[in-house]
Amino acid sequence: MALINGTDVARDITEQTTKRAYEFEQRTGRKPCLAAVLVGEDPASVTYVKMKRNRSAKAGIESRFVQLPAETTTEQLVAEITKLSEDDGVDGILLQHPVPGHIDERAAFEAIAPGKDVDGVTMHSFAAMAFSEPGFHSATPGGIMRLLEAYDVDLKGKHAAVIGRSPILGKPVAMLLLAKDATVTICHSKTANLDEIVRTADIVVAAVGKPNFITAIKPGAVVIDAGYNEGNVGDVDFDQVADDASLITPVPGGVGPTTIAVLLEQTVSAAIRRSEDM
């Protein structure tokens, strides 16, 4: 068993991003700008946004923060995001999710202009991933693919099991794996014989949101734990499966750092593309 060190991979991505951000500023006279929108005061979301803003600053990216009260309506949120989409000083937009339950999250996501969807949450971005067209990857799936690439995991012809089918994690990572010639099985809460399927997979991506949910794997499998539950616990029972895995991500220190690194990288890419189109 060997650990996949997401912190090291993220550092490499961020170093290149910082260099590109500096070059962009020298050429245009301004820094790339990422706008973060937060609805309410959920402590975990507040912490995540603060972390992303700090990482942005270190990478030479300007951050703009829009905090809205928890009682904000869907219409009000869509209006705020639309303003950011139309603002020439903003290159990327991040809507911190989940949003309060009374808000139509999909409607809010779709208010993000495709060229500023650096978190890869819109239907446009999903279609680009599914058809291998230019666009932005969902940040966590994009980070997962960078981890597999950094550790030279050959996906061609391999069986990948994705446990979870969310529109911003399970489904897009399945599309990205498929584009690399893996044979992908998407599993979920109603999948029959889930344990048997997982035990046949060469690559396991756990994104189901249940602590210690995966307890057995195929010997030699590569395990990517994209879960993060209370108490720094992933979706994979690390102690149960680590000895059987050839490579495995820890929680924390695995997928999380690369998610933020890809978000920042795509923000700089968005700034560069927008400047070239102006």
Automatic annotation (TrEMBL):
<dbReference type="InterPro" id="IPR020631">
    <property type="entry name" value="THF_DH/CycHdrlase_NAD-bd_dom"/>
</dbReference>
<dbReference type="InterPro" id="IPR046346">
    <property type="entry name" value="Aminoacid_DH-like_N_sf"/>
</dbReference>
<keyword id="KW-0028">Amino-acid biosynthesis</keyword>
<keyword id="KW-0521">NADP</keyword>
<feature type="binding site">
    <location>
        <begin position="164"/>
        <end position="166"/>
    </location>
    <ligand>
        <name>NADP(+)</name>
    </ligand>
</feature>
<keyword id="KW-0368">Histidine biosynthesis</keyword>
<keyword id="KW-0511">Multifunctional enzyme</keyword>
<dbReference type="Pfam" id="PF02882">
    <property type="entry name" value="THF_DHG_CYH_C"/>
</dbReference>
<comment type="similarity">
    <text>Belongs to the tetrahydrofolate dehydrogenase/cyclohydrolase family.</text>
</comment>
<dbReference type="Pfam" id="PF00763">
    <property type="entry name" value="THF_DHG_CYH"/>
</dbReference>
<feature type="domain" description="Tetrahydrofolate dehydrogenase/cyclohydrolase NAD(P)-binding">
    <location>
        <begin position="138"/>
        <end position="273"/>
    </location>
</feature>
<dbReference type="InterPro" id="IPR000672">
    <property type="entry name" value="THF_DH/CycHdrlase"/>
</dbReference>
<comment type="function">
    <text>Catalyzes the oxidation of 5,10-methylenetetrahydrofolate to 5,10-methenyltetrahydrofolate and then the hydrolysis of 5,10-methenyltetrahydrofolate to 10-formyltetrahydrofolate.</text>
</comment>
<comment type="subunit">
    <text>Homodimer.</text>
</comment>
<keyword id="KW-0554">One-carbon metabolism</keyword>
<dbReference type="InterPro" id="IPR020630">
    <property type="entry name" value="THF_DH/CycHdrlase_cat_dom"/>
</dbReference>
<keyword id="KW-0486">Methionine biosynthesis</keyword>
<comment type="pathway">
    <text>One-carbon metabolism; tetrahydrofolate interconversion.</text>
</comment>
<keyword id="KW-0378">Hydrolase</keyword>
<feature type="domain" description="Tetrahydrofolate dehydrogenase/cyclohydrolase catalytic">
    <location>
        <begin position="4"/>
        <end position="119"/>
    </location>
</feature>
<dbReference type="InterPro" id="IPR036291">
    <property type="entry name" value="NAD(P)-bd_dom_sf"/>
</dbReference>
<protein>
    <recommendedName>
        <fullName>Bifunctional protein FolD</fullName>
        <ecNumber>1.5.1.5</ecNumber>
        <ecNumber>3.5.4.9</ecNumber>
    </recommendedName>
</protein>
<keyword id="KW-0560">Oxidoreductase</keyword>
<keyword id="KW-0658">Purine biosynthesis</keyword>
